[in-house]
Design a protein that fits this description.
Blueprint lengths: L1 H26 L6 H8 L7 H4 L2 H21 L4 H14 L1 H7 L10 H19 L3 H4 L3 H20 L4 H4 L4 H12 L9
Helix pairs in contact: 1-2, 1-6, 4-5, 4-6, 4-7, 5-6, 5-9, 5-11, 7-9
Amino acid sequence: MSSERTYHHGDLRRAILTAALDVIATEGPAALSLRDLARRAGVSHAAPAHHFKDRTGLLTAVAAEGYALFADALAGAPDLRERGVAYVRFATTHPAHFQVMFQPDLHRADDPDLLAARARATEALRSGVADLPSAGRGEDDRLTGVAAWSLAHGFATLLLTGNLADAMAGRDPEEAFRSLASSVFAPERRRDG
């Protein structure tokens, strides 16, 4: 009885999101079913639709929440390299969000909450590039941003999928990324021509 009362007070949305994150983390987004999530939450199979309408709505909510958490994680980083570290940390601590956020075919691209959260995260990443000394940015800030994003996202993805197990050899992922980012974005290592 107390769990039903809690759901009537607005916790059903969070319970469904939490259950969805568990499923995504263990089985991937393709395994999501609103009916299964309702069963896990102990509510009728129609109850999740009141909060998410459908599976795409649920995945959109996961992505929006992920981008909001991601933007918060990036906001505290003092420079581009530490934003990359925050990127890797976010991916390892929120793997389900990370999986959904970067698969636009899973969610509604025009969702206002998703757009706002993604814009905050993008701005945090772009400001890290703008803060680089001009020698470290290259000729095009946007391409430097793509390079930084590719480095952090690629590293995080390879880490999450177990493809760096041998290369990491017990190293702390954040320290490994710091070293990698410093070698790529160190102005003194750039050569002209």
